[in-house]
Amino acid sequence: MRIACPHCGLRGVDEFAYFGDASVTRPAADAAETAFADYVYLRDNPAGAHRELWSHALGCQSWLVVTRDTRSHAIETVEAARDVALARTSEAQS
C-alpha cells in the first residue's frame, strides 16, 4: 500500500504509523463516566470507507487523515489532520 503524503508525495506504507479511527470525538469534560469508557474502549470495525489517523513517522512527521476502503485497502483521500481539525472547529462554531 502507498500513501500520498500532501507534503512528501507518494510513499510506501512502511514510512507511516497507524493511530486508529479518525472519526472518534472526545466526550465533554463533564460527560458521564460511561461516555469516557465508550470513547476509550468501543470502536466500530467497518467494512468499506473508513477515516483513519496516520503519522508520517519516517518522513515529514505530519499527521494525516486517510480515508481507506477496509475491504480493498484502496486509499480514497489523504488530508492533513490540521486541516480536518480546523474544518471540524469551524463547523462546530457555525
TrEMBL record:
Residues of the signal peptide: none
Organism from which the protein derives: Hansschlegelia quercus
Domain of life: Bacteria
An annotated GO BP: tetrahydrofolate metabolic process
Entries under InterPro entries matching the protein: SoxD (IPR006279), SoxD_sf (IPR038561)
Protein name stated in the entry: Sarcosine oxidase subunit delta
Molecular function per GO: sarcosine oxidase activity
